[in-house]
Amino acid sequence: MFDIIIIKNILTGEREHTRHEYEGQRLIDIVDIKDLQVFVNGIPVAIPYSYIPQDGDQVILTEELEGGMKGALGWILQIGLMVAAPFVGGWLGITSKFGQALAAGAFMILGGKIINSLCHVNQAHAAEQETSPTYGWDLPQVQTREGGLIGETYGETMPAGQLLMYHVETESETYVPDQPQAQPGGPFAKLFKKKHSYSGEKDVQYLNVLYSGGYGPVDSIDDIRIGYTPIENFEGVQIEKRLGTNDQEPISFFPYTIADQSIDMDCKQGSAVIRSTDSDQCNAIEVTTTWPGGIYSVKDDGNFENLTVKFIIGIRRTGSGDTWTEQACEVTEKVNSTVRRSYKFENLPTGRYDVRVLATNMPITSRKYAQMRWSLLSTYINTGQFVRPNKVLIALRIKATNQLNNGIPALNWRQKRMHVLVFNPRTRQYEEKSAQNPIWAAYDILHHCRRLKNVSTGQFEYVVDGCPADRFSKYFDEWQRAAAYADEMVDDGNGSTEKRFQLDAFFDTKQKRFEAANRAANVGHATLVRHGVNLGIVVDMPGTIKQIFGEGRTTMSTFTGNFSSRDERARSVQITYNDEQRDFKNTEFFVRSAKYAENRTLQDNTATVTLFGVSRRSQAHREALYYLATNERQLQTIQLSADVNALVCEYGDLIGVAHTVPRIGLESGRIVSVDGNKIKLDKEVTITAADVYSIIVHAPLMMCW
């Protein structure tokens, strides 16, 4: 898809906006461009008649004014100036009038926002985002539903793990067909033969679970727990970790793809229960049965004696109409505690199968008790082990008997990613930069370069699936300055120093790449700027004024200013952030202004601020102080108009404003007498020698001089 915008009136902004599918047509075959100037992504097209619009392009058509292109660029553009620090409202998540004022300051860091059609400023809506399952008031919960987003790690996080596979393992009696299948789709074997017998050891179940921690690679996986309990406190635990490289080894105790299907049906004597596998690629089947109340026969003296129960497991291909291939099974026990048995049928021809369990001798009387339940049907798909390249993996094999409750363990862990790859246009080489620097994190989200191993040659290669590196080259100095400012050492409030801004975030919500990059940059008080197809960044940081707008550089009668009330300002801030010392759970605290108690009659407008990617309390406290200071000093909003030819400043530059707008209404009254150039008023007026004053006289006949 590409956009065509026709500017019908450059003074009123009237325009026509249409969207078109890419079909390889020239622009002149889509729209009449006679006597029109053509801009593509903000850049003028010298020979538009041969231009073919591409997917993602924004094409602007406007009348060719007298004087050619200089006239077109001489449109009067609105510049909004706010005496305030800039923030993006979507990042702040703030309320109250204080919050609304800050949100209104979005992009004011630029010293103004030039018309979107020329500069292609991002116009995405925050409604496209979803709630993150990683961050909340409790530990992150394992995601068990399919179709979830694959998250990306920057810094240190505790992600909400995605469940990939699980299997309850019980020692099995194993059977195989007594003869191999002669040909695919041919007759199935009529009998099974036993391959492995039950050892007679006490019933023990093991749970095998595989989780994903999003895209890799990461540098480390540590502090693995179930809930709040370290994994070291459990018995019979085996852990395997994969950091998310593209050449990582498969998990050893998941040699197959296994799908457990819960049946939970009582098997009564003489009544068959039939279920089908959930895959047509099945190579093996495992039937798990339980007797929750045990298997026993009561003797006359009240003691238990052995009781043998019998049942038949039958298998046939689904929809084939074949006769059942059956295996008779029996269990002998004398206990009133749970008994479990599993029966596995291997080397089956690939397909979908019906499985039948028929109890033939399962007494439930006052002397003999054996209530049978078919608990699980496990489908094995033997297509080889899955490596799952570039995915962070945590595999857990744990003794479930007498250790775990029913269900999937709430496993959580910490993972760290400390480096990203940044292309230096001067050295023409990739360099490692800190993933905790919010500026370089934003760069990585946009560029997304990975160092991958070519499994054919064994050599490492750089692979980019984001914006090409040359789109950052022209403004690379801006990226370096912004990153250096984020890395400056500042007082941490505890007698030591730390980096000014640090990002610890797990991106696992649906959003566009540019939005996600802006979220990361906002942690460093920065915002991204599109210069046509090039990408720059600007930061709210100390600097020198690059241009002063005086009367000679503004359009006549366009200067306006607004003042905001001090009384309605927020005098305290409620900060919510994800504290690294509290398992990255939501943490709140209040910060009150130093002037909070000066006037108790004022209303208490507390602003609520949610900080994304901030995990240090010291950094969150600095942000709170900054918001309060900005709120106290953000007093005036100024708007003016200027011709493009009057602009010397660029995006992100600090500017000044000089004006001679009178402060009308300082005093009012009547004129007592006039003597030459002397006017006597009916009251005393206090004036300051450094200021210039004017008197406006209103005559009785409603005429003004």
Automatic annotation (TrEMBL):
Keyword annotations of the record: Membrane, Transmembrane, Transmembrane helix
Pfam family, one: Phage-tail_3
Residue stretches making up the Tip attachment protein J HDII-ins2 domain: 259-382
Domain Tip attachment protein J: 559-660
Transmembrane segments: 72-94
Domain of life of the source: Bacteria
DNA damage keyword on record: no
PANTHER family registered for this protein in UniProt: FELS-1 PROPHAGE HOST SPECIFICITY PROTEIN-RELATED (PTHR36251), GIFSY-2 PROPHAGE HOST SPECIFICITY PROTEIN J, PHAGE LAMBDA (PTHR36251:SF2)
Stated name of the protein: Uncharacterized protein
